[in-house]
Amino acid sequence: MPRRKPRKVKVVYRPLGKEQAWGHAWPTLSTPLIEVDPRLSPKRELEVLCHEALHVAFPDLGEKAIDRAGKIVSRVLWSQNFRRVAQGKHTTPVRISR
Fold this sequence. Notes:
The protein has helices at about 40-55, 65-80; strands spanning about 10-15, 25, 35. The protein contains two helices and three strands, in the order βββαα.
C-alpha cells in the first residue's frame, strides 16, 4: 500500500463570537483549516484544538465520539504539562538543530 503524504493543517486564531462557537474545522479543503477563538482559557484552547484536529483526522466520525475523544486527549496532554508558551513580540523562537 502506498504511503500517503500527511496533509498540513492551517490553524487560524480569530474571535468566533458571531458564530457562537469556540472552534471550527473544515477538513475537506485542499489545506484543511481549523479556526480557534483566541479568547479561550489555555486549557479550553487545548481541548478545542484537539477536538477540531480530530474532525480533520476523522471527518466521518460523529460529534459525540469526537467530543469524547477530544476531551480525553486534551486531559492527557494537560496532565503531562503540555502548555502554550507565550512569547514576546520581539522574541526569536529557539531553534533546534538536527
